[in-house]
Amino acid sequence: MSLNFAEAKTTAEVLTTALPYIQRFEDKIIVVKYGGNAMTDPALESSFARDIVLLKTVGLHPVVVHGGGPQVDNLLKELGRQSDRIDGMRVTDKATMDVVEMVLGGSVNKSIVSLISKHGGRAIGLTGKDANLIQAKKLLMNKTDAEGNVKEIDLGYVGEVVSVNKEVIMMLINSNFIPVIAPLGVDSEGNTYNINADLVAGKVAEFLQAEKLLLLTNIKGVLGRDGEVVTGLTPKKVDELIKEEVISGGMIPKIQCALDAVRSGVKSAVIVDGRVPNATLLEIFTNEGVGTLISRDLDAALS
Which of 58, 124, 207, 255 suits a disulfide with 164, CB 3.0-4.6 Å? Predict the structure, then answer.
C-alpha cells in the first residue's frame, strides 16, 4: 500500500492548526441553529451531523436547535393546505399547528438524531414541550400600516420564549448526550406554540450562557454595500448599519436575535453560511470563519 505523504502532511497541519481552538473551546457550550439549505441537501446534512459529532468528541458541548419550514410547507401542500406568512412569521391556526408539531417534533427531529447517531454520536431529540423545556407565551405582532397606525396582528399559535429549563439540557450534556431541540413551546395552560428557531436558539444560548451561538442560514452573512461579508461587529456598529439600511429586511430578525444573545452574556454570535460544507468546523476551528461575527468584546471573541 503506497502512502501519500502530501495528504498525510496536510492532515497533520490541519490538526495542528485546530489544536488551539480545541483547547480554547474545551468544555464550552456551543448552540447551533440548524436550518435552511443545509437541511435539504443530503451531503450537507451528513456533513453537519459529522461536524456536530466531532465537536462533542474533542470536548465541546454542542446543542442543536433546528428549524424545518420547507418540510412543513411540503406536508401542508400535500394535504392541500396553505399557510400565509406575515413578515416571515407563519400564521398558525390549530390545524396548521398540528402539522408543524408533527413535522418539527417528529420527522425532522428524528432524522437529525438518526444522522448524528449514524456518525457515532449520542443524540437525544426533544421539543420545548418535553419536561416544560421551553415555557412560551402567545406572540403579539404589532404592524404599522401606510397611514402610520399601529395594528396588532394575531398570528394564531405563534409564540415567544419566556424561559428555558436549562437543568434538562445540562443533564443531557453532562451525560454525554447531544440535545437536538425542536422549536415548540408550551404555556401555563398547556397550549403549544410554533416559535421561530432563531429565537429559540438565541434564548437557549442565553439561558445556558453559551460560549458561542451559530445561526446557520442560506446567505454568506451580513453583506456590505460592496457585496462582501461584513464581520467583527459590535452592537453599536450593528445599530449604525441598520440605520444606514445596510442591514435590512429579513436579516434584521437574525441580527436582533444575535444581538440579544450577546447582550445577555453569550460571548459571541455568528451568522454562518450553512451552504458551505463543514461550515460549523470552519467557524469554530479557524480564525477566518465563514460568516458574520457579532460580539460585545471582539478582542476576547477573536483571541
Answer: 207
